[in-house]
Write a structure and sequence with these properties.
elongated, about 400 residues, two-stranded antiparallel sheet, about 0% strand, mainly alpha, 16 helices
Length: about 400
């Protein structure tokens, strides 16, 4: 890990400078050598970094949704060119280009954070060894070494030996307890964040391999963090726990305000929107009007949640308009318009059993018509025989039906 952290040494000076500036602020309140001053400085570093990464987070959301929408098309390409990997890759790249989707966009926030993460790890490692780094002079390094968070030095690790912990004026038991609790909280926050995304903000009407991958990551990532966490200093655990909590809160806000179409979160959002319209008699807020406008523009291509939203509004006596507002009308009229719009939509695909039953009925009807078209003998009610009187079945290779008489000169 020291080798990896040294690769990001170019950013240790900015990271250490940000920490020192916040330490001056919190040191004046809690005391320069306290764990609160140094711990809150690390938390503030996370907040600054995550605020700067908000544009990348927005790109991540758009990319994730585009990838979900493209999964059926991607699967079709894989099936079509399963024996030609080169053509498959070309078609995939063409699809990404046409839709403006970048598969790497979903990893941008993590990739952008990695230099700061490893730089902070490098800074804390130098503090543990008592060496200066960046803008941290010897006095600040000694102050950070003396800072304890719930009895654990910010530079101590779960796997440190007793001698190293004693050199930091701490107890090995305190260090193990604090780091273990923080590792568990870090893993749980990661799991809850991924679980929240899978259960509430995924279009459940589209079953794709992408969903299975996300479900696997929901269980794998917390285990990875737990294993790696035993080698992280307390200060890095504070950093990672803070960024996980920030991600969880940020994602919760996005799910509530801008849910994925077809997801449970969208259903809950539209239910809240209906209650707001019933209470105020109008759509309040520019964002909400944009949502209603998008639903109206979809027309027959609305998903189940959006059709339910329009129907519920109709029962309450409101009709959504193209500009995102609602119009108060007679409930019976609104329901009739909503029902007419529903009938104009494409019929749903019937189950396999129904399709087979329908096909059998069509076959029987066709057979009955063919029998009715055949000429029948008036007395026996049986199909009439051919004019030649021959009822022999045609031999293999011969045409069925009445045969042409042979020429007298022909051989038998």
């Amino acid at each position: 890990m020291d080798t990896i952290a040294s690769l990001f040494a170019f950013i240790t000076t900015p990271v250490s400078w940000i920490i020192v500036q916040f330490h001056k602020l919190y040191g004046a309140i809690f005391g320069a050598d306290t764990g609160w001053a140094w711990g809150l400085s690390i938390v503030s570093l996370v907040v600054v970094i995550r605020i700067c990464l908000i544009p990348l987070f927005v790109k991540q959301i758009k990319s994730t949704r585009n990838m979900q929408a493209l999964q059926p098309k991607m699967k079709a390409i894989q099936e079509r060119y399963k024996n030609d990997k080169q053509r498959q890759s070309e078609e995939m790249m063409k699809l990404y280009k046409e839709t403006g989707t970048n598969p790497l966009s979903s990893c941008l926030p993590i990739l952008a954070q990695s230099p700061f993460f490893f730089a902070l790890y490098h800074v804390l490692s130098k503090i543990a060894s008592g060496d200066t780094i960046g803008v941290l002079n010897q006095d600040l390094v000694n102050s950070a070494r003396e800072a304890h968070i719930f009895g654990a030095p910010i530079a101590a690790k779960f796997m440190d030996d007793p001698g190293k912990v004693e050199a930091l004026n701490a107890s090995l038991t305190d260090v193990r307890i604090v780091t273990a609790v923080m590792i568990v909280l870090m893993s749980l926050s990661q799991f809850f964040t991924q679980r929240q995304l899978m259960q509430k903000n995924v279009d459940l009407t589209v079953k794709t391999p992408y969903m299975q991958q996300q479900k696997m990551l929901m269980y794998i990532f917390p285990v990875i963090f737990a294993v790696m966490g035993i080698n992280f200093p307390v200060g890095v655990l504070v950093y990672w726990l803070t960024t996980n909590v920030w991600t969880m809160g940020q994602q919760m806000y996005v799910i509530n305000q801008n849910p994925t179409p077809g997801s449970k979160a969208q259903d809950h959002y539209l239910q809240r929107l209906v209650k707001s319209v019933n209470s105020h008699g109008e759509v309040r807020g520019r964002r909400r009007r944009a949502v209603v406008q998008a639903i109206v523009a979809k027309g027959p291509d609305r998903n189940d949640n959006e059709r339910k939203f329009v129907t519920t509004l109709a029962k309450a006596g409101f009709t959504p308009q193209a500009d995102g507002t609602v119009k108060k009308v007679d409930p019976a009229t609104a329901e009739a318009e909503s029902a007419a719009a529903t009938r104009r939509q494409q019929p749903k695909r019937q189950p396999k059993a129904k399709r087979q039953a329908g096909g059998a009925q069509q076959t029987m009807a066709k057979t009955s018509l063919e029998k009715a078209d055949q000429p029948q003998d008036a007395k026996t009610k049986q199909p009439a025989k051919p004019a030649g009187g021959s009822t022999r079945q045609a031999k293999s290779g011969q045409r069925k039906g009445q045969q042409r008489p042979k020429h007298p000169s022909s051989k038998k």
